[in-house]
């Protein structure tokens, strides 16, 4: 039987086994990545004809039951005076005269591995290793050389391999143990719910066949178990090597964690990590990842491998509590440690941005390996708008002006670069000042600005390499510009450039109209992608935007709950369009009050905007009502959200009416079961506010032959409506009323967008009949 082949790059091998030092997120680390390729090409262009650049080298090491392949590309293999030289090029912002032989152990180690492999291949007794340091700012170059015998290099190489072998054996032992448990593991409940087995089968087939699966799975199906269980089975069958469960909300990630706990309780052995945002798990007052400030960053790489071994040998679930415990014990950054753990975990639970954001923290982990991995995308209806946000970026003229004033006497290079950027934006401002709308949308990207902004980054790089002073305003603008230019690199026909005037300030927004091109390209790197939500309607819309291909699977399940337990009512005599809101306000409030009066309990009313919500709030307060009234605040803190929901913890004794906005925290991801919530009232069709950004989206889809109005306004709106309506009826025992107040629901366009099971028990009502309709429903159930 052929040995299992395990591959690792030479750089990753060296950096994992020998890593030392601290986390340092300052500019000096970033600029090397930005300018590194240019520096390499500059040095390689000076090679002679007999020298070779970018030479691929590999070495296979056979063990009893696996083969380790170490591979990489040497920057240069040179010949000089009948001697062979392995050249390793390193770009830097540091003055090369300050770099000596002890500057970086890992640089020598990487070059020595190349030297060993080449020496063995060519039967050389000795070889010269050269480190070439190139300063990307002043173009200074320094060469450091050491000559090694083949025996020295072989001893060094196999010492590295022995250390890495320990990690491989640890991992192989785990995988065998895990796969044995998966093989004997059965579905953890006595029986499948309605639709659950069908979904699980489709998911398993999609993973094993390397396809996508699109699934609309209403509340009650058990979609988390229906996707994780078959994915885990595919993992045990070696059909996938890792599972990423990605969601938009913290509450949904906790459901995934709980699902894995249930599976473990039934005998499954599985490693999982829940990646928490850096802002939430950082222990320091300021989020500065520099060794001088943060003790968890200082010396992080000296201690992280010891902490990793501790975790891998003694634990399977790596939640924030456990990560924080080890973080304190070993004095390491909890966020970075969670990313380290994801390398060794079978299931990684995280937010969308770790996979799709251009600044994603997991990019290094996924590089080259995603083709063997599976993504489960929960709440997939949210990904499109999140994608637009991830691939849009803005800068403001005043940010350049303020910093320009500060640097007038500090640094001429930075001052001049800021002045050029400010003048460019002033010229655009002059154009807008003559426009009635004070705004402008252009299809062309602002390519004339790119060189100016790159010049600013270069000047800051030089300044930072010499200065010991920390300037938070400078760093903030630096990274904003860096991100802006990164987003601009994706610019295409599915982007626009938007200029908006606010007083004397100018906003320049690179606006992603349709992220599907980018999202699809990322999804296509993975072996399989499972796209699911309780509201994946209209299905064809999502299949098109997320790149469905012939042979991909789709499943549209109906609710497993008894349709008689839910009454859906459409108020056909109400208009909620902006121009009609004041006129129909009394009627809206009458509907709400009569619905709430029909049965004591908890109700939520959802609105398309805060402005509309507060209009209704003030009108209700004028009436004589016997229920408590609470409204969602803008930018609520976590404790304020908890306080809002605390009114809904118990039902039946009193009536509580909560007012909230569609698409907000309370319209998705909250579970109010049984009598904690007995009614949801939705005002309007959820349509986003008309604005320049949305109008640009509409025009873009029109230009490619789609119904731009539907894509920009109707579909995003109805998705919010369906999510909010889904807060009512969370279990088979729940009973409740969903009241839709807008005459547009009575049109064919909206009828075809509502879930088909709603029509089993849907009534079209007028204001006069709402009280009797609701009371009769409650009597019958």
Automatic annotation (TrEMBL):
Source organism: Clostridium perfringens E str. JGS1987
Gene Ontology molecular function, alphabetical: 4 iron, 4 sulfur cluster binding; ATP binding; DNA binding; DNA helicase activity; hydrolase activity, acting on acid anhydrides, in phosphorus-containing anhydrides; metal ion binding
Entry keywords, A to Z: 4Fe-4S, ATP-binding, DNA damage, DNA repair, DNA-binding, Helicase, Hydrolase, Iron, Iron-sulfur, Isomerase, Metal-binding, Nucleotide-binding
PROSITE patterns noted in UniProt: HELICASE_ATP_BIND_2
SMART domains cross-referenced by the UniProt entry: DEXDc2, HELICc2
Family assignment from sequence similarity: Belongs to the helicase family. DinG subfamily.
Record Gene3D superfamilies: 1.10.275.30, P-loop containing nucleotide triphosphate hydrolases (3.40.50.300)
Listed name of the protein: Putative ATP-dependent helicase
Keyword Iron-sulfur recorded: yes
Helicase ATP-binding domain ranges (all copies): 182-442
Gene Ontology biological process: DNA repair
